Amino acid sequence: MKSKLILLLLLVSSAFLYSQQMLKGRVVEKDEEGKLVPLVGVNVFWEDSKVGTTTDIDGKFSIPFKKEYHALIASMIGYRADTSHVSNTEPLEIVLLSEATKLSDVEVVGKQNTTFSDYLSIENKGIMTDKELYKAACCNLSESFETNPSIDVSFTDAITGAKQIEMLGLSGVYTQTTMENLPYIRGLMSNVGLTFIPGTWVQSINVSKGIGSVANGFESMTGQIDVDLKKPFTVETEKFFVNMYADYDQRFEGNLNYRTSLSDKVSVINLFHASSRKHGFDANNDRFIDMPKFTTYNVMQRWHFQTDAGWEGQFGFQYLSDAKDGGTDSHAATADHANSTYLYSTKNNQLNLYGKLGYVFQDAVYKSFGIQWSLNSYRNSSLFGLRNYDGNEKTGYFNFIYQSNFGSPNHKFRTGFSFLFDQYDETFIANRFQRVERIPGTFFEYTYTMDENLSFILGARADQHNYYGFMFTPRFHMRWAPQEDWVFRAVAGRGYRTSNIFTENSSVFASARKLNILASESFGYGLSQEKAWNFGVNLTHYFTYDYRDGTISVDFYRTQFEQATIADLDFNPQEVNFYSVANGSYSNSVQVELNYPVIERLDTRIAYRYMDVKQEIGGKMQDRLFTSKNRVLVNLAYSTLREAKDDPQMTYDLTVQWFGPKRLPSTNANPINFQARENSPSFALVNMQITRSFFAGFDLYLGIENLLGFKQDNPILDPLHPNGNYFDASMIWGPVNGRSMYAGVRYKM
Questions:
Q1: What is the rounded distance in angstroms from the CA atom of residue 573 to the CA atom of residue 737?
Q2: Does the pLDDT at position 22 exceed 90?
Q3: Of 150, 593, 626, 741, whose Cβ has the fewest other Cβ atoms within 10 Å?
Q4: What separation in angstroms does the CA of 714 have from each of 328, 626, 731, 735?
């Protein structure tokens, strides 16, 4: 099968007669110490042409080269435009200088985009820089998407404080979440892993909508979130960084990053995080503390090395210890103490080891190979009232990638092989579930670039699961620009995954529901492997109005499941039934987004999204639970004029989100006093933050989350009898606590 696929791709590639060279380079500026610092979001284009691109997080760019092109221009607001005269495709390094011209004795200082996308990117990808994360109280990854219109973040229940994300209307478990393209948030970590990456460790977040690359595995279905961490080897990463945070609910956090170079070839960065909440509060008087008390310690060390002979590598480790306690307030005693007390506790421990090694052939720089590997050990022990859960996961991952071309930069390919090992051992009450998954696989991916107007990626991978058998994963991405200011993108592909029903639905532990598994297989939980196809199109228009650049985009994505795992909460309010359904779920997502600075230094983002998500429940298709069909996001970010980098500056950020009604599980079989509404009301959330930069590297920020104070009424059913038949804290459709203020300080050098 593999040899036939490679032969087919070779035949397809040979059918194209065009040849197009690419010019690559990097745009930088000099800092106060004279070191070169990458510039993000610089416009790079050919003179007298609309052929252009923007630099990425490392200041790098790639742009089509033709003999008739001679002058390459690099420009960004606040910097002098640079014109380079180019006659060949030798790599360029462009150094931009700050704008020296003064307007009314005010010197303009450069402003970089906080979120941007590459005009020439084949995938529909957005890159969120660390400056985008600074717009909100980004304490960890679960709180990093408040200003992103493509991702929803919500609480899972009213007891644990856990958050979940959704993309294209489906749970975040269908989005492949990686750490620098290594598997990270998956398996038993899927419900808590978002809190294991502090926001201060993040350099950027790459958000790709639609199916991902075959080189990264078979698990992506709705998209990929790849977290790019602070690097030990770039001057863009500050040598020293400290962040202190506190909020109204007495949550305290401290973060420390320290980077050093042991030589010109070896560097290391140390990342530390500690956080806690020692006191619980019951603002809605239901006898349960609104957010659990917790203590978290998290440390990571990253090493990087390179040689003059073409070798480059990195390795590192992360260790995390996390403990939470919640449930009923000890001060809210009742006469029937034994039956009215509910204790929640959980302990998480993680050890992650990882590394990368790459080599670029010195006599042919277009050829390279790389090795990626990771080892992860994760343990969770939890108590939900009278029910206990213990989970232990060990994961090993290896990936080898070889990259070259078919005699021309227009015809590139990547190929390689991988091996994924998962060992799971779970106990829920007295029931034990064990399974081992061994999955060797191979892949091939061909990229064709005709010119700046047309390019596509055609890839496939073949994997062999030790129980489910052969898995074939084809994927296709295309970019077409019929005009220079219009770009059309399309994607299609297939994905596979094995459900982890306990951790992915851990919110039902916070209820009296009995868990039933309607087994159809003899492996793991007895459920079928999930399979889904994803199809999507995106149209983006780039425009300039009143000397300011903007974009407007429209996209549509459909995810169609061949096999889906259903958590049926509707059949009986005292039960949750897990079962597999063929062709039993789909998701349609339509989104319109406008990005434009309405006035100078006021960035505006407005987005509307419509969701049509169905699951087969009880033999008929119904709306997916807790999913809003309509969502609107407005983000405004204004910064005052800064005369010089060391001068003070004010930044104001406002985010407004509106959510339409969501379908809730049926509770009609309960006594009328313990019935919930059938649909949630629509509601709005408003967050705002003010940042004062006293000088370069020192910021003070103040913010309010949920400014309007909206919160879900009666989030817990029958809270007086947590050990009774009708107790349920999993019916969460909105915020569980009201207005919260926070403050923090950042210093870097």
A1: 25
A2: no
A3: 741
A4: 15, 16, 10, 11
